[in-house]
Structure formats: structure tokens, C-alpha cells
Design a protein that fits this description.
13 strands, 3-stranded antiparallel beta sheet, 6-stranded mixed beta sheet, single chain, binds flavin-adenine dinucleotide, Butyryl-CoA Dehydrogenase, subunit A, domain 2, FAD binding, alpha+beta
Length: 691
């Protein structure tokens, strides 16, 4: 424990050091334009200037000649020296942004310039939650996001998720529930009476909402939920009830602190008959945030991350709401209890219709995951170009990004991030322009599931690898990998566990699967430098895995279907689903690069090639044992991949600059001047520190 006087002294020193550095070092911090970079070098930190101030112990040490030498290490200079872009970075940003470029620029500006967006670390859970809400409110007040975007500009919803996740994943999680899961459900399943009452307040956050699907006992198997909404003809009300502890609504985002409403998904009973799962609006707090009678809200408390998100458990004790609270676009209940529905088929289909918002939700999650993967890579690669350690002479003079270890770990992740981006753009377009006759809907559902799973796993791998490859710096909260890893786990679990979604992908692909003759095999003149051949190889793998799965399911017959799928062949099910996703991603990347400006194509071809080789390398066991690749060709895969990593590495920083993140959006010391950041006592915070 520090004594009170020591604490005062510490605070005093910190203030002095911060003020003196701030005055001495007014640094312009956006790296992306070369003009800004030139400005940066004009205002390059000069530690001698700090002498004229009454210095803290930390800055006084800067006078020591030895330390002065060490502080000569200038991360900005090292980054500039890493390698000039071989392509037009702003053109690449335009390509990666895909849509809403102007709006994205304005969004980046507020995320960069508004002081509220500066990260804060050592704060209480209550402060974290209030900060996440305040940040979201700021974006809403500026009109950056509206639930009506689903009608007017649906792609913007996803763009906002991607960029916001770079700055605050907790705020973005609250945003996705407010605007997609809650707002989108009210918009799409509700009718005029719900819209008139709620849409405006959803945009302004005067009406904060939740999406109450998951129950303690029923997560991935939510269709079995127990919560009931029973129609009472006498009073023309629904009685919403939680019959058992397992039926508690669980994990409900925005529920613990901020929400006024929840869409409760419940088994709808009329005259003792279950009509399946429907969404009913239930007020849970009044405008002053007093909890409504009959509603019990339990705060789920501290989590492994994203503690700015307030998650809750809900109990409903026979809570009565008016008949009009049923979201009644597709199914309705008349005053006398007559039930009507436009949804054809089994009552399971009614569940699928009400859970429709999960589809765009999966695109929101994939977009958030991509924002976080890009941020991790930008931070890790900037640091890797500026962290000097042992060189050929034993001196600390070699950026770790020169090492093959670093390149082989990070370049494939960069290639995968680009690849997923192009596939995600394609899938978002397909989702936004579905045929009115529903003919492509099933395909869109499968693509939304596979991209959510692959992007969710990818951000986890990226966050973990970047953290490790940045050493101890990677472990500090202020360098942000921890936040992105926490987000990645939410991405993997929320809105459908990734592996469970992959089962759905495999089922749906198997239903439409038609075996074809293998195109790329060991005997087809294997050429690992030929992207067309590699694409054929990926197709052949998918073809073989689905053929094999199909045969096993045929053999199992109707009787053995569940047993074979769930207890015997899970590895095959997962591998088949992944082979579809990876083939699709590679295909989308190929199409996008063919359409790209010729100036961008050389580097994109390298990345595409590296993506294909990475996929093959990771599944080399299958390629080698299935006869798709000879042992001789298989033995070359590692070398070809490593060569590509070496070729991509000089462009790595420029490829990250193309993500279009400002220094302030990243706001991680190791992505900026980490030497200057560490020259003073900053207590691990970035707020108020100029670096
Ligand atoms: C940060 C966060 C926010 C959330 N916000 C909301 C919200 O606002 N509203 C809401 O309704 N829900 C919310 N959720 C809940 C989320 O949707 C569920 O956690 C998710 O659907 C998984 O359910 P579960 O946790 O009960 O997992 P379970 O269904 O218990 O699954 C646990 C594990 O069991 C295995 N498993 C389950 N089913 C199968 C199967 N069929 N085949 C093989 N293996 C299987 C898988 O390994 C799975 O990971 C949130 C969750 C998180 C983490």
C-alpha cells in the first residue's frame, strides 16, 4: 500500500511530467497521409526541451546520456523506414471500405476526435457501463446510426459496427443489441403501432431495449424455451411468465442497467394451445429506470471482458401486457383470441421467422470481428516494425518484423483478414439484395452463418497471436489485445455458438450438394504458384468432404441420422462446413481482386495466394492423405507459404494503413510512440498522455 503522501507525490510527479511533455511535444498523430507524416517529423519529440521545465524524476532521468541514446529510438521513423507502399493506400482503403465511404470518413473523424472516445482502464464496472452508454449516445446524438438504416442504407449498419468495434467493443455490443437485435426486431416484426411508439426513441436512446431470446436452460437450443405468453381474452392481455429457474432470460444485453423494454420470446398459448415462439414487448423499467412490477432483474455482474456491457437475468412473474404488444407483422391474435399467421409450415418455422434478426446480427458480429482483427494487426505490426532486438552482430538493432518467426505468424493473419473482408462484402450485398420470392434466402442464411463463425474464430486467433508476438507489451491493457480477445469470445458464442452454426452450414450445404468430378488433384500438374489450381484444390476438398458426409448419412438412413451426425461424424461435419466457407472466401477474394484497380492487383494477388496457401497448410494432413496432394507437393507447402510471408512483409504496414484507422482510433501506445509514452509515469492509462 502506498502512503497518502506517496500517492500525492506520485500524482504530482505524473501531472508535471505530463504537462511538460505535452507542452514540449505537440505531435500531430494521424499516420495515414504522408502530409501528416511530414508534420509529425517536424514536431518530432525533442527530449532536451523538457529540461526547461521543473521536471519530475522520470523526465529528469532523460538528461542521462545513456538514456538519451536509448530515447533516440524513434518508432515513427522506424515505421517510415519499414517499406514504402507499393500501391495507393487510399485507393486500397476505398476498396476495403466497400460502401458508405463518405459516411465512414465522418464516422472515423468523430471516433478519432471526440475526447469521450479515449480509452480508460482503471475504472469501476459502473463507470465502464456508463461510459459505453455515453459513447453510444454521442454517436446517436450526431445521427450516425438509425434503426431505419435497415430500410434506407442497410450496409451502413455493418460499417458502423466494424469501425465502432475498433474504438470500444463494449459500446458496439450495446449498439448491436439496441439497433439490430432490439430495434431491427421491432422494425421488422412489429407494425405501425410499435413503430410509432418506439422507432424515434430507439434512435435517440430514449427507448433502450433488449432482445430476450436465451434462457438459462436453453441457449443454442432456444426453440425449446419455457417462457410463456398466455392470452387472456377477458382483459385482452398477454400474461408473460417465467415458470422455472431454467426459463430465466439469460445474458440479456442492456438489461442490467439501461433498458426500458425487452422483446420477450415466449411460447404463445391461446386456450391451452401452444402456437409456437413469438415476440412480445414487455416494459421492464419506466423512464426514470425504476423496475416495473412483476419483473425481477438480476445483474450478471463481472465478466472475463467487455464489462461495459450490462448483462442481466430476467424473471417475469405473470406480467400483464396489452394484446397490442405482440409483434404482429406475421402472426396476430384478435381480441377474441383468434390466431392468424402468414407463416407456412410447422410451428418451428414461426420460431425461425421471429429469430430473423439473428441473420443480420451475424453480419454485425462478423463486421465487429473484422474491425477488431484489423485493429490487432495494425497495432502488432506497427510495434513489430519498431521493436528492435538481436541482430546478426548481437546488437539490439533489428526490428522483430524482420524475423521469420514474426512474419510467418502475422502475414497469414493479414491475408486471412483481407480475404474475409472481401467475402463479407459479398455476403452483405447478397443479404441486402435478396430476391423478393425468397429463392436465394437459404443460400444467404448459410453464408451469414459461415462468415460469422469464421470471422469470430479469426479474431480470436489474431488477438491471441498478436498478443503473444508483442511480448509483455501485448499483455498491457492499454495495448488493447485483451479487449479484442474478450470481444472475440463474445463473437464466438453470442447469436449462436460457432461450431453449432457450422453444423447448420453443413446440413444446409449437404441438402443442396451435387457431387462433381474433382478438378484440382495430385495428378493435375500440381503448381503451388498457380492460384487457379489452388482454387480448384479447395473446391475438390469441399467436394470430397461433402461426398463422404453424404454417403455416411445415406448409409445411416433416417433411423441412424442423429446418431451418425451427433455422435460419430462431428469432425467430418465441421471440416465440410469449413471447407465450404474457405472455398467461398477464396472465391470472393479472387473475384474482388480481378475487379480491383490494376495498381492494387499485385499486392492483392500475393495476399490471395497467401490466403490459399495458409488454408492448405493448415489442412495439409487432409490434402496429403486424401490423395488431393502428393507427398512431394505437400513437402513444398511450408516453403511456398514462408516465401509469400517474406514477400508480403515489406507491405505489411501499408496494408494495415489501408484499414484507415487513425492513431486516435487505435490509441495503443505500441501503435504509436511507445518510447515517449513510457518516458513518464502514466499508470497504464492513455487519457491525458501525449505520446
Ligand atoms: C456477451 C454476450 C452477450 C449476449 N447477449 C444476449 C442478448 O442480448 N440476448 C440473448 O437472448 N442472448 C444473449 N447472449 C446469449 C447467447 O446468445 C448464448 O450464450 C448463445 O446462444 C449460446 O447459448 P449458451 O450460452 O446457453 O450455450 P449452450 O447452448 O449451453 O452451449 C454450450 C456449448 O455446448 C455445445 N453445444 C450446444 N449445443 C450443441 C449442439 N447442438 N451440438 C454440439 N454442441 C453443442 C457447444 O460447445 C456450445 O458452445 C449473449 C451472450 C454473450 C456471451
Amino acid at each position: 500500500m502506498l502512503s497518502a503522501s506517496a500517492l500525492v507525490a506520485r500524482g504530482f510527479n505524473r501531472t508535471l511530467a505530463t504537462v511538460s511533455l505535452r507542452r514540449a511535444l505537440c505531435v500531430e498523430s494521424i499516420r495515414s497521409s504522408s502530409e501528416a507524416q511530414n508534420k509529425q517529423s517536424q514536431y518530432r519529440p525533442n527530449f532536451h526541451n523538457t529540461r526547461s521545465f521543473s521536471l519530475s524524476a522520470a523526465s529528469a532521468q532523460l538528461d542521462s546520456p545513456k538514456l538519451q541514446d536509448e530515447l533516440e529510438l524513434d518508432p515513427y521513423k522506424l515505421r517510415d523506414e519499414w517499406g514504402k507502399a507499393s500501391f495507393d493506400v487510399s485507393q486500397m482503403t476505398f476498396l476495403l471500405d466497400h460502401d458508405n465511404q463518405e459516411k465512414r470518413a465522418k464516422f472515423r473523424k468523430i471516433l478519432s476526435e471526440d475526447p469521450l472516445m479515449t480509452p480508460k482502464y482503471n475504472i469501476s464496472i459502473d463507470e465502464e457501463r456508463e461510459l459505453a452508454l455515453k459513447r453510444l449516445k454521442k454517436l446517436c446524438d450526431q445521427g450516425f446510426i438509425s434503426v431505419l438504416d435497415f430500410r434506407n442504407n442497410p450496409l451502413w449498419i455493418f460499417a458502423a459496427h466494424e469501425l465502432a468495434a475498433v474504438v470500444d467493443a463494449a459500446m458496439t455490443t450495446k449498439m448491436t443489441v439496441q439497433f439490430n437485435l432490439f430495434g431491427g426486431t421491432v422494425l421488422k416484426l412489429g407494425t405501425e403501432r410499435h413503430h410509432d411508439k418506439l422507432l424515434k426513441g430507439i434512435d435517440t436512446l430514449e427507448d433502450v431495449g433488449c432482445f430476450g431470446l436465451t434462457e438459462l436452460g436453453y441457449g443454442n437450443n432456444a426453440v425449446q424455451m419455457e417462457t410463456t405468453a398466455t392470452y387472456d381474452k377477458e382483459t385482452e392481455e398477454f400474461i408473460v411468465n417465467t415458470p422455472t429457474p431454467l426459463a430465466q432470460k439469460y445474458w440479456i444485453t442492456n438489461g442490467a442497467c439501461h433498458a426500458h423494454h425487452v422483446v420477450v420470446f415466449s411460447q404463445l398459448y391461446i386456450d391451452g394451445v401452444n402456437q409456437g415462439i413469438h415476440g412480445v414487448l414487455v416494459p421492464i423499467r419506466d423512464k426514470d429506470l425504476n423496475v416495473m412490477p412483476g419483473v425481477q432483474i438480476h445483474d450478471m455482474g463481472h465478466k472475463m471482458g467487455l464489462n461495459g456491457v450490462d448483462n442481466a437475468k430476467f424473471y417475469f412473474d405473470n406480467v400483464r401486457v396489452p394484446r397490442e404488444n405482440l409483434l404482429n407483422l406475421s402472426s396476430d391474435v384478435a381480441e377474441d383470441g383468434t390466431y392468424t399467421t402468414k407463416i407456412k409450415g410447422s410451428i418451428r418455422n414461426r420460431f425461425l421467422a421471429v429469430a430473423d434478426q439473428l441473420l443480420s446480427g451475424r453480419l454485425c458480429i462478423a463486421s465487429m470481428a473484422q474491425g477488431a482483427s484489423k485493429a490487432c494487426l495494425a497495432i502488432a505490426l506497427r510495434y513489430s516494425a519498431t521493436r528492435l532486438t538481436v541482430g546478426p552482430e548481437g546488437k539490439s538493432d533489428t526490428p522483430i518484423l524482420k524475423y521469420q518467426l514474426q512474419q510467418n505468424a502475422l502475414m497469414p493473419l493479414l491475408a486471412i483478414t483481407y480475404a474475409i473482408d472481401f467475402a463479407l462484402h459479398y455476403i452483405k450485398d447478397c443479404w441486402a439484395s435478396q430476391a423478393t420470392d425468397g429463392s436465394d434466402h437459404a443460400d444467404v442464411v448459410t453464408m451469414c452463418c459461415v462468415i460469422k463463425a469464421i470471422a469470430g474464430w479469426h479474431v480470436s486467433e489474431t488477438g491471441g497471436t498478436c498478443r503473444e508476438r508483442c511480448g509483455g507489451q501485448g499483455y498491457l491493457s492499454c495495448n488493447k489485445f485483451g479487449i479484442d480477445l474478450a470481444l472475440s469470445h463474445a463473437c464466438m458464442t453470442a447469436e449462436g455458438d460457432n461450431s453449432v452454426l457450422m453444423q447448420k452450414v453443413a446440413t444446409e450445404r449437404l441438402m443442396v450438394f451435387k457431387p462433381v468430378k474433382d478438378q484440382g488433384t495430385a495428378s493435375d500438374g500440381a503448381d503451388l504458384s498457380d492460384r487457379t489450381y489452388l482454387q480448384a484444390l479447395l473446391k475438390s476438398r469441399e467436394n470430397r468432404l461433402f461426398t463422404s458426409l453424404g454417403k455416411k448419412m445415406m448409409k445411416a438412413g433416417k433411423e441412424g441420422r442423429f446418431d451418425t451426425w451427433m455422435f460419430q461424424e462431428q469432425d467430418l461435419v465441421q471440416a465440410a462446413a469449413r471447407s465450404y466457407g474457405e472455398r467461398l472466401i477464396s472465391e470472393c477474394f479472387g473475384v474482388a481482386l480481378d475487379k480491383a484497380d490494376p495498381g492494387l492487383q499485385p499486392v492483392l494477388k500475393k495476399l490471395h495466394h497467401l490466403y490459399q496457401m495458409t488454408v492448405i497448410k493448415r489442412d495439409l494432413g487432409y490434402f496429403a492423405t486424401s490423395g488431393l496432394m502428393s507427398a512431394e507437393t505437400g513437402a513444398e507447402v511450408g516453403k511456398v507459404t514462408a516465401d509469400l510471408c517474406r514477400e508480403v512483409a515489406p507491405q505489411a504496414l501499408a496494408l494495415c494503413d489501408a484499414f484507415g484507422f487513425t492513431d486516435e482510433m487505435l490509441n495503443a501506445p505500441i501503435a504509436r510512440d511507445w518510447v515517449r509514452y513510457n518516458a513518464i509515469d502514466n499508470e497504464g492509462e492513455v487519457e491525458g498522455v501525449e505520446y
